[in-house]
Amino acid sequence: MGLEAGDKAPSFKIATDDGGTLSSASLKGVPYVVFFYPKDDTSGCTKEAIGFSESLSKFGKLGVAVIGVSRDSLESHIKFRKKHKLKVPLGSDPNIKMAQAWGVWGEKTLYGRKYMGMERATFLVNDKGVIKQAWHKVKVPGHVEMVLEAVKTS
Fold first, then answer.
1. Can you give the residue range of the structural domain that contains 52?
2. Is 147 within a domain?
3. Which of 9, 33, 34, 45 is catalytic?
4. Do 126 and 103 form a contact (C-beta atoms < 8 A)?
5. Is residue 107 part of a domain?
6. 60/66 Cα distance (integer angstroms)
7. pLDDT confidence of residue 108
8. Which residues pair with 108 in a beta bridge?
9. What is the pLDDT of residues 40-82, one digit of tens each?
10. N or C: which end of the chain has fewer CB within 10 A?
């Protein structure tokens, strides 16, 4: 079951495509948005990552960090970022530890075929490490704007 508003955000430490790492410890005292997405360079994931990248400065002005996470490799993330001129840092979760901790790894169905995969989900976490809002089974159109509005009103 996925995490919801009021839950404590699980601790994490994840390698990012810019050669660094991001962790819950490094974000202590900083509100942040983490969006989980299934796969680099697929249509919905590309639109979502571009949307967050285009709005990154708006989140920044509100003092909110943003990170995207999938199980793709750092090399894949680097190509994805370069190809689409993404600004948002991308975390690699190849062992799906972070995805499982956040409750976004599970059974999916595509054309009747069941498989394990990453749920498209977004979490807004406050400066105390508590989830303020959670969006599960995200539909990409209008989603970034919805998250930005939630940041403004929280």
1. 30-153
2. yes
3. 45
4. no
5. yes
6. 8
7. 85
8. 115
9. 999 999 999 999 999 999 999 999 999 999 999 999 999 999 9
10. N
Per residue in 121-142, pLDDT tens?
A: 999 999 999 999 999 999 999 9
Q: Evaluate whether residue 129 is within a structural domain.
A: yes
1 pLDDT above the threshold of 70: no
Other C-beta atoms closer than 10 Å to the C-beta of 139 total 11
**Residues 52 and 35 sit within 8 Å (Cβ to Cβ):** yes
From its phi and psi, is residue 55 left (phi > 0), alpha (psi between -120 and 50) or beta? alpha
pLDDT tens per residue, range 95-109: 999 999 999 998 888
Q: Is residue 118 part of a domain?
A: yes
Q: Is 45 a catalytic residue?
A: yes
Three-state DSSP class for 42? coil
Contact 151, 59 (CB under 8 A): yes
Q: Record the tokens describing residue 116, joined without a space.
A: 């394990």
CATH code for the domain of 149: 3.40.30.10
